[in-house]
Amino acid sequence: xxxxxxxxxxxxxxxxxxxxxxxxxxxxxxxxxxxxxxxxxxxxxxxxxxxxxxxxxxxxxxxxxxxxxxxxxxxxxxxxxxxxxxxxxxxxxxxxxxxxxxxxxxxxxxxxxxxxxxxxxxxxxxxxxxxxxxxxxxxxxxxxxxxxxxxxxxxxxxxxxxxxxxxxxxxxxxxxxxxxxxxxxxxxxxxxxxxxxxxxxxxxxxxxxxxxxxxxxxxxxxxxxxxxxxxxxxxxxxxxxxxxxxxxxxxxxxxxxxxxxxxxxxxxxxxxxxxxxxxxxxxxxxxxxxxxxxxxxxxxxxxxxxxxxxxxxxxxxxxxxxxxxxxxxxxxxxxxxxxxxxxxxxxxxxxxxxxxxxxxxxxxxxxxxxxxxxxxxxxxxxxxxxxxxxxxxxxxxxxxxxxxxxxxxxxxxxxxxxxxxxxxxxxxxxxxxxxxxxxxxxxxxxxxxxxxxxxxxxxxxxxxxxxxxxxxxxxxxxxxxxxxxxxxxxxxxxxxxxxxxxxxxxxxxxxxxxxx
Amino acid sequence: xxxxxxxxxxxxxxxxxxxxxxxxxxxxxxxxxxxxxxxxxxxxxxxxxxxxxxxxxxxxxxxxxxxxxxxxxxxxxxxxxxxxxxxxxxxxxxxxxxxxxxxxxxxxxxxxxxxxxxxxxxxxxxxxxxxxxxxxxxxxxxxxxxxxxxxxxxxxxxxxxxxxxxxxxxxxxxxxxxxxxxxxxxxxxxxxxxxxxxxxxxxxxxxxxxxxxxxxxxxxxxxxxxxxxxxxxxxxxxxxxxxxxxxxxxxxxxxxxxxxxxxxxxxxxxxxxxxxxxxxxxxxxxxxxxxxxxxxxxxxxxxxxxxxxxxxxxxxxxxxxxxxxxxxxxxxxx
Lengths: 516, 334
Description:
The structure holds two protein chains of two kinds. In chain A, helix 14 crosses helix 15. Helices cover 35% and strands 24% of the residues of chain A. The two termini of chain A are 48 Å apart. Chain B is an all-alpha fold. Chain B has one domain (4-333): ABC transporter involved in vitamin B12 uptake, BtuC (Orthogonal Bundle), CATH 1.10.3470. Chain B is built from 14 helices and two strands, in the order H-H-H-H-H-H-E-H-H-H-H-H-E-H-H-H. Chain B has helices at 11-16, 18-34, 41-65, 74-91, 96-120, 125-144, 168-172, 176-196, 198-208, 210-215, 220-246, 258-268, 279-298, 306-332, and strands spanning 149-150, 248-249. Chain B is globular, with a radius of gyration of 21 Å. The A-B interface holds A 14-20, 45-46, 56-57, 306, 308, 327-329, 331-333, 338, 340, 345-352, 356, 360-361, 363-364, 366-367, 370-372, 391-393, 400-401, 414, 418 and B 1-7, 196-199, 201-202, 204-205, 208-209, 211-220, 222, 275-276, 330-334.
């Protein structure tokens, strides 16, 4: 058994109205990759922030090598050798400076000589680059690097100073499969050669099982489990700990009512070329999946339909009537509702209440002669909160204090209040925890039952198989395949999403299967 | 769900009401030191009269800043409006009401230029209005032939003005009861409009997150235009009051109101925990400036030190309103 490097005991953190961490214990040994799992709002990021010193209001004790340390400022945490690579890497980087300067940013900020020795800066950066097997120009401004490379720059910065514990907050979320592999290889190297302890947060359980040696599971701010990961550990086991109950199996088994198309698009192309010649239909009461990799044009297609992205060609028919939304306001007036992918940037009003969010898309309904009726707004908010199962102490609760899943429910709720006919959901499960996912899925299914049309875009085929009746696979902005959800598989969706042509399974595999 | 407060119960109270407390404290100090000469009905009217113009312009700025807009050129445009009002009334001898209505309409017309640069050319508000500040200055002087417009002066084309002097009614606009009533009407309108109508809510949604507002189906350009037009009305009203009080439309006559009016909006932002430009807060902010000016003058503070003292107290009010919030923000952000 490894000696205990870091031990956090009885950590509690409270925010107004929410107890984010409730007497949590956390142990970390040198030379291990330790997973931190839990649904959204379980307190993972909060615990990370405590360790990184950005949450000075915590109660409890943190011991490093058996000695108590006070992690009340980021500087104190870094002095103790704890470095955080946060989820949004851009927050921690100076975009106009070069990669080399960003790597050495901690040094450049220190009091010292007046002059910058550029030769030494670039030499040190090159050395770091070699050590991390990175491949890019350290003199290029960091804003030109890819997300994966930016992450590497941050890891390099952490390693520059005496780093003993590396906290990675959802590092793989924006990465491709190949980039994830590179990151994992680096993590294994660091743990083996430098005896680092790495804390790894991810929503993707297979990744945790692949790379981590042990796992701490949080649930509602409390410690749910502390388990060692063996080759026999399964994702189901982790999910059980995360939810407290076994994951409910929510497969859709229902027939789609026949009828004319609610939405039909013909030969749709966007002016910027990200959507090219797309034709699709959504029937009333139908959930239509939109599959494809990141960048395949799913978001762009949703935005083109809603009137955000200018269209160059093609026509849109709603209930058989040609329409031409040229702005989101016109799209909304036609009875469409978009749940955008980037919730924080495109969906939330910081500082405003849940009731504000739920009413904002249908203010006409809640006002007379332009005067708002507070009573009607409040009644609407209460109805939607109950209908969607939003966990908020009151309709007046400020939105940013809710967890990602509850925020997403409210963003969907604003269109429910408006009573849309067609819902465009762009990655609705992004940043939503497992429990809330199931509830959202039920709401979406109920919308379809009520006769609304749903276009559901997601990069995860498994999600679409559970939710959708029919699936269009996008590749490079065009429809590569149209599949019935009941008669397809994740493999088939992925095959078309990565650019496969011709029938599935591909000819080569069929031959191999035929050969004994 | 468990409800826990981490901030001491009154921390929010102090930041939310910092401007009001500063106002009350300043009034109390002056009342103690100067007694009846400060704390009297006559002086209250004095203060209200002196703050009325700043407040009207500040209400205009509030309406523009609610949807996260900004207007640097407001008071330069007001100078143009005052030229228009004076020339319509004196040179062309139009009746008072018609001069006022035409001034409002023409100011709205001129404001289309601002809206054109912001909404059609998509120049950021700050830059567009910065350039327009000079454009409006030039336009105004071109209209008057390079001078002020006052009673008894010939028109730029050499004829005698139709009306030789200001009438009693036209001078009453800028004097005690009327200018105060006009100010209160402007504040009341902005208060109801921003707080109790769906249009106001849309403007605040835009101020909170422009993209999210647009994606919620709010016609953001229309609403920015609406906010601009209402601001133009406030600018024209303010200009008419200035013109009446000075009994002339002076060169750069309104320009000096820009900074005090913006200060009033900023001080008022946090009043009552609103965290956004709001009408009542703006009124409090303008009142704070006026009370300080009035009290300090009575205290015998010489006029050339006055701006420094005034600015210092304003800065303190801002520190109280914004400083602690930043600290607390550290805790509440997740």
